[in-house]
Amino acid sequence: MTRLLHRTTRSTPRLAVAARGITIEDSEGRSYIDACGGAAVSCLGHGHPDVLAALHRQADSLAYAHTGFFTTEAAEALGARLVADAPEGIGHAYLVSGGSEAVEAALKLARQYFTERGEPQRRHVIARRQSYHGNTLGALAAGGNEWRRAQFRPLLIETHHIAPCFAYREQHEGESAADYAARAAGELEAKIAELGAENVLAFVAEPVVGATAGAVPPVGDYFKRIREICDRHGVLLILDEVMCGMGRTGTLHACEQEGIAPDLMTVAKGLGGGYQPIGAVLLSQKIYDAIAGGSGFFQHGHTYMGHPMAAAAALAVQEVIARDNLLENVREMGAHLRARLEEVLGDHPKVGDIRGRGLFQGIELVADRATKAPFDPDLKLHARIKAQAMGQGLMCYPMGGTIDGQRGDHVLLAPPFIVTRDDVDEIVARLAKAIDLALAELP
Ligand code: PLP
After folding, report:
1. Residue/partner pairs of 23-31 with CB below 8 Å, 24 or more apart
2. What is the CATH number of domain 16-34+325-441?
3. Could you tell me if the CB of 133 is within 6 A of ligand 1?
4. Mean pLDDT across the stretch 222-240?
5. Where do you find CATH 3.40.640.10 in the chain?
6. Using an 8 Å Cβ cutoff, are 50 and 323 in contact?
């Protein structure tokens, strides 16, 4: 019997024993195409020799040094690289061990920015429904996934949620993309007015929504409007690119495609590609300056922040992506993946929507295409698809998101940046089969 508390107590997961390229193998000799990078993590695939070599070199020279005493070459080089490639205005990077830690640190940086500036009344965080920002208490409070939050609500800081920008679910019949973007962004303006602009700290959003909604991109100039509203009210804009960032959508940062820059940005998953746990907050120079010109001390910290092994892995991952021009492959293979999904699943009677950017694509399943009615959540269609896909030797990431109290099922695909056309064709063929097998199980 396992002595680990796994995600479920009902079963023990398969034992993974090896992984190379885009496949993972279990202890029974079965192999699985990793078409979701776990949860959009393994951007370089598995066992990349250059990353393994960098890890060996780092372990040989220095495996750990506490940041209360030292900085390290690996951490400094990664910080420099992240800032050099960052959106305009970003001046510094803060290295942590994952996505939730990055979101916690971003929220605290936002708060400290205002306390340093003598605006301690700014305390309200606004985020969006159908979003996920992590499972630690601050990040969970920011997220809009009711299923994850419900039992922990008494422990969560008060946050305020507005509608996501989710065209398939929320754009009205006959409403133009521009009008819908204005209406969705207008919710932020209204919420700020309701709370009093002088009391609002930050607005948090994923540029392309990942786990809770299945690769939902924004529409029109939604984020330009959001940026303008935040600026007008002195509210900080935190973009959570933990899942959609670091090249996943075809540009290094997803917000580049929106033509805006955040005040704070969180990255993780694809930063280290799964070779080490690592995340980062990218912060604007003005936030750094407020702290440097005030207390000079960011009142936060973790034992493993700036870990040199994690930094060395992330540096190697990012160097390989740049050297091998893999973002070009993300764009090309992303377009091919989308085209194949449309060809194979576009007319499927239970596929309501196919969406996404780059190698970050989502498929939403519906009981009725005309009404967009989701499947009964008790049927757990997403779990059935996951199980059937594993039976087909395919790892994909199905979830049941929350749609204003109703749950809908979707599948997220986020294959490694090294996929080929043949890999993509095989992924789509196996997924289509898994979806049909799962639907055939329904009563
Ligand atoms: N933010 C987003 C957008 C995420 O998708 C996730 C994880 O899925 C997190 C934050 C939390 O990251 P982690 O699981 O590394 O704590």
Report:
1. 24/395, 30/393, 31/393
2. 3.90.1150.10
3. yes
4. 98
5. 51-324
6. no
Task: Name the token pair of 309.
Answer: 């092994």
Residue among 95, 100, 107 to mutate when testing ligand 1 (max atoms within 8 A of CB):
100
- Cα(416) to ligand 1 centroid in Å equals 18
ipTM for this model: 0.99
Any ligand 1 atom below 6 A from CB of 344: no
**Nearest atom in ligand 1 to 269's CA:** 15
Question: How far is residue 205's CA from residue 165's CA, in Å, rounded to a whole number?
Answer: 10
State the CATH class of domain 51-324.
alpha beta
Q: Where in the chain is the domain with CATH 3.90.1150.10?
A: 16-34+325-441
Residue 50 pLDDT > 90? yes
Please state the pTM of the whole predicted model. 0.98
138 Cβ below 6 A of ligand 1: no
Minimal-distance CA residue to ligand 1 atom 15: 99
Structure confidence at residue 404 as a pLDDT band (50, 70, 90): low
